[in-house]
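re: ur question from yesterday

yeah so i grabbed the chain u mentioned. its 236 aa long if i counted rite. heres the sequnce exactly as i have it in my notes:
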Amino acid sequence: MAAAKHVEIRESIESDIHRGIYEVGQKLPTEREIMDRFGVSRNPVQKAMSALVEAGLVTRRRGAGTVVASAGLRSNLLRMMDPTLTSPEVDGDHRVLNVQVSSAESFDLSRSVFDHGQPTALLTRLKLSNDGRPLALERCVIDLVQVPELLSQNLEALTTIAYYNSLGLRVRRANTVLTAVHLNAADAGSLDVSMKEPVIRQERTTHLNDESVVEVAEFLIHPHNMTLEVSQIDNS
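ran it thru and got these structure tokens back, copy pasting raw so excuse formatting
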């Protein structure tokens, strides 16, 4: 499934920022230059720029152009809920800590989400920055009936929503609940944080177009190595 042009443009520029091609304070190419580079009209370029503003990576000022605001690890909550993802929410690979296959009632996350006896896989991974720092501890319980080839994928690089979309499963929405929690000893050790320090926990339930649930996941966000934010654009 080909990504929409505005998604392709956003992801390309975002990758360039994270790789240091554009540094903080540096102006991005003009709309016309980006239009020529990707062979598109103005509309997808403007959509891509709006998404980069939402992510906190760039700022726009009338008459001053678009300037890189941050190259750091800032993850917009809206991107972590984006049902159209075709690339990672945050750059960097995973360290796979554990994979378990069992019925849904075996796992706390999925016990009340999937039917009793539903075949599922619990994938526990540590999301790492490009320089190897822990960003988030992830646990995903995935419906193996919908995604039977999951465990044959490269689990270190896999972005689950992007994978579902690549299969044509048509993710419709991803609902999120945020809470603050203290970690147990094992999870605190994985993230290298104190058990006394609260962290943000994101629980995300991913629905397909037919409203069936394909995945329920939790993300325990490192309190210092990643900033979780929500941005709203002033369209006036």
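noticed a couple things. The radius of gyration is 19 Å. also The first strand starts at residue 58 and ends at 61.
anyway ttyl
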